[in-house]
């Protein structure tokens, strides 16, 4: 069995992580998305077990106590997100590489746990104004409220300062270009160049 690798995609909410993650997953059949657990409520277009495992707070806490998470964070106040150890090993066992879409602290944490077989990429939006516009557009479709957007913007300001701890920083100015760069970096990493 070839040694499993891990691609860590991090960056502020609205930076384009999810779009880039979908692009990478469709480009590389050897990559598999790591489905995280979350206690936030399910959105209209989401599917349990595909986008997230949607758990109650009690069930999430019970998994923390049983040490079932490789990492977990209270990403937003009272909203927990975590990567299950089982999810990671299941993917590696199936001979695939893992792609995680994760908040910045979680990304740094996983990189520390798997320093030799992981590649961490920070998706950066260098204008808070652009980020705000993206989050507003998204909230229009997803019924987020304004408070939620402000919480995400404040977090984004802090998160940008951790970008230097990642292997690569991708400035998402032009989405086409960003996808192209992401494909190039990931291809080199998984094909061992
Ligand atoms: P959303 O609620 O928009 O799906 O995700 C909010 C944030 O949580 C995003 O930055 C996403 O990358 C992050 N996230 C998703 N899964 C995990 C996880 O397993 N662990 C951590 N630490 N963050 C996660």
TrEMBL record:
Its EC number is 2.7.4.8. SMART domains: GuKc. GO terms for cellular component: cytosol. The keyword Iron-sulfur does not apply. Residues 4-187 form the Guanylate kinase-like domain. Transmembrane segments: none annotated. PANTHER family: GUANYLATE KINASE, GUANYLATE KINASE-RELATED. Belongs to the guanylate kinase family. NCBIfam families: guanyl_kin. This is Guanylate kinase.
């Amino acid at each position: 069995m070839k040694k499993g690798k891990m691609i860590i995609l991090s960056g502020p909410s609205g930076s384009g992580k999810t779009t880039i993650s979908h692009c990478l997953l469709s480009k590389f059949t050897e990559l598999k998305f790591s489905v995280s657990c979350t206690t936030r409520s399910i959105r209209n277009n989401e599917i349990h077990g595909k986008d997230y495992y949607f758990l109650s707070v009690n069930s999430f806490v019970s998994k923390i106590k049983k040490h079932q998470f490789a990492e977990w964070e209270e990403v937003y106040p009272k909203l927990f997100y975590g990567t299950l150890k089982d999810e990671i090993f299941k993917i590696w066992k199936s001979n695939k590489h893992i792609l995680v879409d994760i908040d910045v602290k979680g990304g740094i944490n996983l990189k520390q746990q798997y320093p030799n077989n992981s590649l961490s990429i920070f998706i950066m939006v260098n204008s808070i104004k652009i980020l705000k516009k993206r989050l507003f557009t998204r909230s229009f479709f997803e019924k987020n409220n304004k408070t939620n957007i402000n919480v995400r913007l404040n977090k984004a300001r802090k998160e940008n300062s951790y970008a230097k701890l990642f292997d690569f920083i991708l400035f998402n100015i032009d989405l086409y270009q960003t996808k192209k760069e992401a494909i190039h970096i990931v291809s080199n990493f998984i094909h061992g160049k």
